[in-house]
Amino acid sequence: MGKEESHLPRVSWLIGTAGLFLYGSVNAGAQQSRCADCHFANLQDAPEPEHLADWEHSPHGRNDVGCERCHGGDPTTFEPFLAHSGILNSRNPASPAHRSNLPKTCGACHVGPFVAFQKSRHYELLQAGERRGPTCTTCHDSVAARLLSPRSLESQCDSCHRDSGISPNPEYAPQGRILLEQVREVRELLSSTRHLIHHVSDEARRSSLEEMYEQAQVPLTEATQSAHQFVFDDLRERLSVARERTDSLMRELANP
Question: pTM of the full predicted structure?
Answer without folding.
Answer: 0.77
